[in-house]
Automatic annotation (TrEMBL):
It comes from Echinimonas agarilytica. Keywords: Glycosidase, Hydrolase. One of its GO terms (biological process) is carbohydrate metabolic process. Coiled coil: none annotated. This is Beta-galactosidase. The lineage of its organism: Bacteria, Pseudomonadati, Pseudomonadota, Gammaproteobacteria, Alteromonadales.
Length: 814
């Protein structure tokens, strides 16, 4: 993959017009030569903009013709808007090379080439504008000639969209709102250059990007020491127009000095984005008052239709040598936290200090004597003290968010809530971060997160990009996380309040593929994402970076300063494609919902108990998930809570893989599932053999009224075959797909659902590097015809799907 965006093809695209290239590479030793080069560059710039504007005129003329034929041109209106914007941006970037070079310098991946990149960026943007115009002209031309027929865009009603039971509804249909998180600051919420159908038009109290900034975020500084509220700061909240739907953020990063003076311990146990001890009584009193007041003031307002974000990326990593330690996260704990931990232990051990002493190898006479050094040495992993603290740390985090939600609902019972949970809290092997993803998804009224993907290799030295050997992008971190969250809370709206699909601190690519953009947004929406706010939009309408990204940047967040470089703010093709794919998803929203709401017949058993105790639970568990994902059957998870709280008829079999450590309650739940006729597949008798403290369990599962299969294998393929064999015929769609991608592994995932009229809806995604040769069939052998729903064109039963291709098919049996 690319070290920079200047691949051979792009480098050639960035070269200036004939006569300028050679001169630009000569030694610029005299003012005359430099002036000539500058003049030639200006000519080249003018030629590109002239070309783009000619194409704009062509497209707009075609749009006029299309309107006379009553052809929807919403997609082309967006192309025109982004083209105009990025031509303006390119001119600003060209006139301000030092500012752009500085932006590149803040991202270490680009820093060494900052001047070169800044010089090349304007023409890159212009050429990408030409590309999206060429594509727009081509596609609209096909529709004008009758070669394709697109479904009109179903736009988001930014004023009237409502939150339903498990989806947003606009004009009587499911809708997937989209926008950019942390939009440019200082611009009024009524500015249509920022809030529109193209960039999205959600009003919000955006992220506070300074340690002590008050930009519409609800934060600790709203309450003064005398118990009154800072009404000037409160206006940032109350002055939001009650026109567009939106969301609000409780920004819990800072703490006022007056609190610190009264409570010297208030910053003990703080974390990167939670600037105080959540166990501190004064901090809790402060936040209870703020939450209740802001909840009252915003009750019934449209700006809360997408809910209150209770926290930005919360975590409390408490293991030694974790990267968060240098940001003063959990460097110690307060007396309040320690005492709460002692009380938790007292309850956990039923007041028997002797049992704790036996587990911890200590000699305490009472729980009030218990001590623990935080951060905890990783040498303790797998030992009872490690389990007890890590489990408590999760319960502590959940308790804090319950406290926040309880206070909000005390004054505003209908308020929707979610938390921007980082997927790494589930996907990574570490469980020292104090976040129980299942518990938080159960707690809040909506499911919240900031799911990401990697469109190209990880740009950080030493970080793995192993997935790229098999796939075009890292689809798995999107899919597995969504499948888990949807399994836990299938009837809740799913909000990604900071989607890092386009860039993040770990990856970016200045020439991101539009095919990747389309595929990843389609995948996430298909698997449950109901709304997303992308990271991030940071252009003022004149093209300059917004105020917070100008001047000398000194952010506490280490990733923010370099976020602008290589982002979608420099990529017209990417930003346009986000809106285009959201238009298509919203035009087919009913079909997407029908596909996503299928049963998940295969369920993987998930145990936080094992995850806490071993080093590679998620890494190895992902491998089984990955191989099952390409079998055409929706996947899901079960936990103790899911089995107990949900209808067990929603699945056919439970696969228990590498789950040696489970609590007695988890074990009893699985046995109860078998007693009621369920099917359980164990990879080995070692599974479920230990309790949370590593002590041998005497009991073993028995089949009872159900079916118990013990494989005694760690062969992923054998486990997959056993799981697929237990899927009931009634759970199968009736559609089969054969794949030939030239590789020994599958890369094409597909889902099919039979509709009420007998036709089938089929969705296919190719994550591979190669074009896949595919063949669809009905397992009855019945003949059929197919059409591509995006174009209304026929599709043969044998066809090809390019890398990162997305296909939505209607299959009609004959």
């Amino acid at each position: 993959m690319k070290r920079l965006f200047l691949t051979a093809s792009i480098a050639s695209a960035l070269l200036l017009t004939t006569g300028c290239n050679e001169k630009a590479t000569e030694q610029q030793s005299t003012p005359q030569v430099q002036a000539e080069v500058a003049q030639d560059s200006a000519i080249a710039m003018g030629a590109l903009e002239t070309q783009a504007r000619q194409k704009l005129a062509t497209l707009e003329g075609m749009m006029d013709e299309a309107r006379t034929k009553e052809i929807d041109v919403a997609r082309e209106e967006t192309i025109v808007w982004f083209s105009e914007q990025f031509l303006k941006f390119a001119n600003w970037d060209e006139a301000n090379p030092e500012t752009i070079a500085k932006a590149f310098s803040y991202e270490r991946y680009y820093a060494n080439d900052k001047d070169k990149l800044a010089a090349e960026l304007p023409d890159f943007e212009r050429r990408k504008v030409i590309e999206i115009l060429d594509k727009g002209i081509d596609v609209l031309g096909q529709e004008l000639r009758g070669e394709i027929k697109r479904r009109p865009v179903n736009k988001v009603d930014w004023q009237g969209t409502k939150a339903g039971d498990n989806m947003f509804i606009s004009n009587g249909k499911p809708i997937f709102p989209y926008d950019y998180f942390s939009k440019t600051v200082g611009q009024p919420l009524t500015n249509t250059d920022i809030y529109n159908d193209h960039l999205g038009a959600l009003y919000h109290g955006g992220e506070n990007l300074y340690p002590v900034d008050h930009d519409r975020a609800i934060n600790s500084f709203l309450l003064k020491e005398d118990g009154t509220f800072d009404e000037e700061l409160m206006k940032e909240l109350t002055s939001i127009p009650d026109t567009n739907i939106g969301f609000l953020v409780y920004w819990i990063m800072g703490i006022p000095e007056w609190v610190e003076q009264q409570e010297p311990e208030v910053r003990k146990g703080r974390s990167l984005f939670t600037g105080f001890d959540v166990d501190n009584p004064l901090a809790r009193d402060l936040w209870a008052k703020i939450i209740r007041r802001t909840g009252e003031l915003t009750k019934g307002k449209k700006v809360t239709e997408l809910g209150f974000v209770l926290a930005n990326e919360p975590h409390w990593f408490s293991e030694k040598d974790h990267w968060t330690y240098r940001f003063e996260e959990m460097n110690s704990i307060s007396s309040y936290t320690l005492n709460k931990f002692r009380n938790w232990l007292n309850a956990k051990y039923s007041g028997d200090i002797a049992v704790l002493n036996a587990n911890w190898n200590t000699e305490y006479t009472e729980f009030a004597q218990v001590e623990i050094e935080i951060p905890l040495d990783t040498a303790y992993k797998g030992q009872p003290i490690w389990y007890d603290w890590m489990r408590y740390n999760m319960d502590r985090g959940t308790d804090w968010f319950k406290f926040m939600q309880d206070n909000l609902h005390a004054v505003n019972p209908e308020a929707a809530t979610h938390i921007k949970v980082m997927p790494r809290m589930f996907m990574d092997d570490s469980r020292s971060g104090g976040i129980d993803t299942e518990a938080l998804a159960e707690l809040t009224t909506m499911v919240g997160h900031d799911a990401k993907s990697f469109g190209s290799k990880n740009i950080r030295p030493g970080k793995s990009s192993e997935w790229i050997e098999k796939y075009a992008y890292h689809w798995g971190i999107v899919a597995m996380f969504h499948d888990f969250m949807e399994s836990v809370a299938p009837d809740k709206i799913n909000v990604n309040s900071e989607s890092h699909f386009l860039s993040s601190g770990q990856w970016r690519d200045l020439d991101t593929r539009t095919s990747y953009v389309r595929s990843v947004y389609w995948l996430a929406t298909l698997l449950g994402m109901d709304a997303n706010m992308g990271w991030f939009w940071a252009r003022d309408p004149d093209g300059s970076p917004e105020d917070r990204l100008e001047g000398e940047l000194d952010f506490f967040d280490p990733g923010l300063g370099g976020a602008y470089a290589g982002s979608n703010n420099m990529q017209p093709h990417v930003t346009n494609e986000v809106t285009q794919v959201m238009y298509d998803l919203n035009s087919f929203s009913e079909e997407i919902v029908e596909l996503r709401e299928q049963r998940r017949p295969i369920r993987l058993f998930y145990s936080e108990t094992t995850a806490i105790n071993i080093d590679d639970y998620m890494t190895q568990g992902y491998k089984l998930y990955e191989t099952l994902f390409f079998e055409g059957t929706p996947l899901g998870f079960v936990t103790k809570n899911i089995i107990e709280k949900q209808n067990n008829d929603l699945w056919d079999t439970v696969v228990v893989y590498r789950n040696a450590y489970v609590t007695d309650e988890e074990f009893a739940t699985l046995q109860g599932y078998l007693n009621n006729g369920g099917t359980v597949i164990l990879d080995s008798e070692k599974s479920l053999s230990l309790n949370e403290y590593g002590q041998k369990r005497a009991d073993k599962l028995t089949a009872a009224k159900g079916k118990l299969i013990v494989l005694e294998t760690d062969d992923i393929e054998k486990i997959k075959q056993a799981a697929v064999a237990e899927v009931k015929s009634t759970s199968l769609s009736g559609v089969t797909l054969k794949e030939d991608n030239g590789q020994p592994h599958k890369t094409t995932t597909w889902r099919a659902v039979k509709q009420a009229d007998g036709r089938y809806l089929v969705n296919i995604l190719n994550f591979g590097h190669n074009t896949a040769k595919l063949e669809l069939a009905l397992n009855t052998g019945q003949a059929f015809s197919m059409i591509d729903l995006m174009t209304r064109n026929p599709v043969e039963s044998s066809f090809e799907l390019e890398s990162e291709g997305v296909l939505l098919i209607e299959l009609t049996p004959r």
